[in-house]
Design goal:
The protein has 212 residues and is of the alpha/beta class. The chain has helices at 2-11, 44-61, 74-86, 127-138, 155-163, 174-183, 191-200; strands spanning 15-17, 23-24, 30-31, 33-35, 67-71, 90-93, 106-107, 115-123, 142-151, 168-173. α1 (2-11) crosses α6 (174-183) and α6 (174-183) packs antiparallel against α7. 38% of the residues are buried.
Length: 212
């Protein structure tokens, strides 16, 4: 599954690797990778693999789940399609409460005590998805964990998830994507070391220019 999804994401440019010409994140950090999993929604074959994969993760790792909750906005469509496959209710969590109407931050019916799985497209430092988990917990939900498409496996993200006591299961991860990319000639084999160096310490730019 990890390798299949890695190939899928690379094939449509949802994960775009460019170690020789780094992208610049909003924070100013130089990155050899750009990830836009929204592209999976416009590629039907890949979308099918992703949603069936998320459904499999939930069946196998969260069999007691009662409701799926997507993250706003990237996780909403994936939560909806996966919930349809599993014949389960779904909703989503806004980044903030509405300033009109009922002022909802959680959209969709959620009862106290219900067992919830959060559906997310991408996990890097983990901050935004943990905010979603906290909102659901404050509303009285029992959050079983997260089902996500891709994770960088950054230490900061792993530490935050552990501190929040929340489990994440991803369809694929940075290491597998790098490995598959090298095998298929997308990047040079020696670039794997550079990519992993970035992942391990994004603020250290020594990987740029071929540094090993």
């Amino acid at each position: 599954m990890e390798r299949l999804i890695a190939k899928d994401l690379l094939s449509i440019g949802a994960v775009f690797l460019r170690p020789e010409q780094p992208f610049t994140w909003a924070s100013g950090i130089k990155s050899p990778v750009y990830c836009d999993n929204r592209l999976t929604l416009t590629a039907p074959a890949v979308r099918t693999d992703v949603e069936n994969g998320l459904a499999k993760i939930i069946r196998e790792n969260y069999p007691d789940a009662q409701v799926l909750m997507g993250t706003s906005t990237a996780g909403i469509a994936h939560a909806a399609i996966t919930a349809h496959i599993l014949d389960m209710p779904m909703g989503y969590v806004r980044s903030g409460a509405k300033d009109h109407g009922r002022g909802n931050q959680i959209e969709g019916k959620l009862e106290k005590g219900q067992k919830v799985v959060v559906v997310e497209d991408l996990i890097s430092t983990g901050g935004s998805v943990i905010e979603v988990v906290n909102v659901l917990r404050e509303a009285g939900a029992e959050v079983l964990g997260i089902a996500s498409i891709f994770t960088y496996g950054m230490k900061k993200g792993l530490d935050r998830l552990a501190e929040a006591n929340v489990k994440n299961i991803s369809l694929t991860n940075f290491d597998v994507v790098a490995e598959v990319a090298a095998e298929t000639g997308y990047i040079k084999p020696e670039d794997i070391t550079r990519l992993i160096a970035f992942r391990n310490n994004p603020s250290d730019e020594s990987w740029i220019g071929g540094a090993k």
